[in-house]
């Protein structure tokens, strides 16, 4: 890849936090309304988001383009790394390896997740109000439930450990003590964020999300 | 009559060899007589004295590099029982046998255990890891360095360009242009020097180009492997801070 890899890598790092890190937190809160307030609460949360001004541009510049750059350049970053945890079994080296593995899993997961939800809305197969039902038909399928659990754990780990690395790469946590404390904090963040996403996922399995899951909704479940 | 013969102790070695830079590597096993306080270098010297494999067949003596024999020159770095380190400070008594020796493959292999560390010296040139004081007239004494600063800067000056940090780094490889931890730590050292500081932007900018500091993926193997205990990851993070500040200053035209 020609050009200044310093700038590309910095942009990759920044986009992972702003806006993608902020988005994953927003996504967690929206989903959690399904657990806390049920089907109607989730519908209201989705409606709130779609009522935001300039929602198309928010999505384009806040999600689609950053996700595309971070994902594709991230695959290139992963390709550039040797995984040597066999020779060097140190904690941080494991995290280095897991960051790359979880990144690739997250890429596949998000690709499929977008196809099943956002793309179906775009194609007109599903309305925003039916997204809860769509999630119900996905999560009640055993294969997809496991797939989503793995995807959620990978994505939230990638986010949390990425935040740790971001603070190092931009020179905020410098000494070993600062980096150690930061790693405790972000592993705590990982547990909390992953837990909230998983609770939402189980909430979608509830019967209240079942109503009128049309045949069109089922078709994205290939397995 | 009492038994007077002592069972001869030996040292077993398995060495990864390579005849030429392009030829395929292969392994050979050796068994050399043990002496007290042997290190890997003296074991290699035994092989040089009597280049016979464990099966008694003659072979070419194993090539290696070494100079100081007291872990300050960095020449005898090799992979010993899976970990990159100096052969001179690797004592046979402390190693599991057979002792497995291999060249540090991150670098081009010249022959057997001899590698070419030229990329490290090129990296030092690239980041201008020196203090420019040459001129056409006497510049006079430079500014003084605070003792507290000198103390931590001294730790960074222990770097002997041995290559162990590059060998342990997952991001130093053929697919990646990462400069490696050693040169980044040297930028911190020369930027900390009161006279060297006058050219600090030049060194930072050298790390803000293709194959600069961004290649660091925070695996932190370097700091765990460095034989001199240099705080390499602290250096990298400190230079991350300096390059970030420099980046924003440049954008804002300050």
From TrEMBL, chain A:
SUPFAM superfamilies, A to Z: Fumarate reductase respiratory complex transmembrane subunits
Keywords, sorted A to Z: Heme, Iron, Membrane, Metal-binding, Transmembrane, Transmembrane helix
One Pfam entry name: Sdh_cyt
Xref: InterPro entries: Cytochrome_b-558, SQR/QFR_C/D, Succ_DH_cyt_b558_Firmicute, SuccDH_FuR_B_TM-su
GO CC aspect terms: membrane
Keyword Acyltransferase: no
Residues the entry annotates as binding heme: 27, 70, 113, 158
Keyword Ligase among record annotations: no
Subcellular compartments: Membrane
A Gene Ontology molecular function term of the record: metal ion binding
Domain of life: Bacteria
Transmembrane regions: 12-34, 54-76, 97-115, 145-172, 184-204
NCBIfam families: sdhC_b558_fam
Protein name: Succinate dehydrogenase
From TrEMBL, chain B:
Primary enzyme class: oxidoreductase
Domain 4Fe-4S ferredoxin-type, first and last residues per copy: 150-178
Keyword Cell inner membrane in record: no
Enzyme Commission code(s) on record: 1.3.5.1
Cofactor: [4Fe-4S] cluster; [2Fe-2S] cluster; [3Fe-4S] cluster
Gene Ontology molecular functions: 2 iron, 2 sulfur cluster binding; 3 iron, 4 sulfur cluster binding; 4 iron, 4 sulfur cluster binding; electron transfer activity; metal ion binding; succinate dehydrogenase (quinone) activity
UniProt KW keywords: 2Fe-2S, 3Fe-4S, 4Fe-4S, Iron, Iron-sulfur, Metal-binding, Oxidoreductase, Tricarboxylic acid cycle
InterPro entries: 2Fe-2S_ferredoxin-like_sf, 4Fe4S_Fe-S-bd, 4Fe4S_Fe_S_CS, Beta-grasp_dom_sf, Helical_ferredxn, SDH/FRD_Iron-Sulfur, Succ_DH/fum_Rdtase_Fe-S, Succ_DH/fum_Rdtase_N
Residues that span the membrane, as ranges: none
Any single biological process term in GO: respiratory electron transport chain
Family listed: Belongs to the succinate dehydrogenase/fumarate reductase iron-sulfur protein family.
NCBIfam families: dhsB, PRK08640.1
Name used for this protein in its record: succinate dehydrogenase
Source organism per UniProt: Paenibacillus sacheonensis
């Amino acid at each position: 890849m020609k050009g200044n890899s310093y700038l590309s890598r910095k942009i990759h790092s920044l986009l992972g936090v702003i806006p993608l890190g902020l988005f994953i937190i927003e996504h967690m809160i929206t989903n959690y309304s399904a657990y806390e307030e049920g089907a109607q609460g989730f519908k209201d949360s989705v409606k709130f988001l779609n009522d935001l001004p300039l929602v198309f541009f928010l999505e384009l510049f806040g999600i689609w383009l950053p996700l595309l750059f971070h994902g594709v350049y991230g695959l290139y970053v992963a390709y550039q790394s040797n995984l040597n945890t066999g020779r060097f079994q140190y904690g941080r080296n494991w995290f280095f390896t897991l960051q790359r593995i979880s990144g690739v899993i997250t890429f596949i997961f998000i690709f499929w997740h977008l196809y099943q939800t956002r793309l179906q809305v775009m194609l007109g197969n599903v309305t925003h109000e039916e997204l809860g039902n769509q999630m119900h038909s996905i999560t009640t399928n055993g294969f997809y439930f496991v797939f989503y659990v793995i995807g959620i754990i990978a994505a939230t780990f990638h986010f949390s450990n990425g935040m740790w690395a971001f603070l190092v790469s931009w020179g905020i946590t410098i000494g070993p003590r600062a980096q150690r404390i930061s790693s405790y904090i972000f592993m705590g963040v990982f547990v909390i964020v992953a837990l909230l996403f998983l609770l939402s996922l189980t909430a979608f399995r509830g019967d209240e999300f079942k109503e009128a899951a049309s045949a069109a909704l089922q078709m994205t479940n290939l397995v | 009559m009492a038994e007077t013969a002592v069972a001869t102790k030996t040292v077993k070695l398995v060495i990864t060899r390579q005849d030429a830079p392009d030829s395929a590597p292969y392994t050979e096993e050796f068994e050399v007589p043990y002496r007290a306080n042997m290190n890997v270098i003296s074991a290699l010297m035994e092989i040089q004295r009597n280049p016979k494999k464990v099966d008694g067949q003659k072979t070419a003596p194993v090539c290696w590099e070494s100079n100081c024999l007291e872990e300050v020159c960095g020449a005898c770095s090799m992979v010993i029982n899976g970990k990159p380190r100096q052969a001179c400070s690797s004592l046979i008594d402390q190693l599991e046998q057979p002792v497995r020796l291999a060249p540090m493959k991150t670098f081009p292999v010249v022959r057997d255990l001899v590698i070419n560390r030229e990329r490290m010296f090129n990296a030092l040139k690239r980041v201008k890891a020196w203090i420019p004081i040459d001129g056409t007239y006497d510049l006079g004494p430079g500014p003084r360095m605070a003792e507290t600063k000198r103390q931590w800067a001294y730790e960074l000056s222990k770097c002997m360009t041995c290559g162990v940090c590059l060998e342990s780094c997952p991001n130093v490889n053929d697919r990646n242009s990462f400069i490696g931890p050693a040169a980044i730590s040297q930028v911190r050292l020369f930027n900390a020097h009161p006279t060297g500081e006058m050219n600090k932007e030049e060194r930072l900018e050298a790390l803000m180009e293709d194959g600069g500091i961004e290649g660091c993926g925070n695996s932190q193997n370097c700091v765990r492997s460095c034989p001199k205990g240099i705080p390499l990851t602290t250096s990298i993070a400190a230079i991350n801070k300096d390059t970030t500040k420099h980046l924003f200053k440049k954008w804002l035209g300050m």
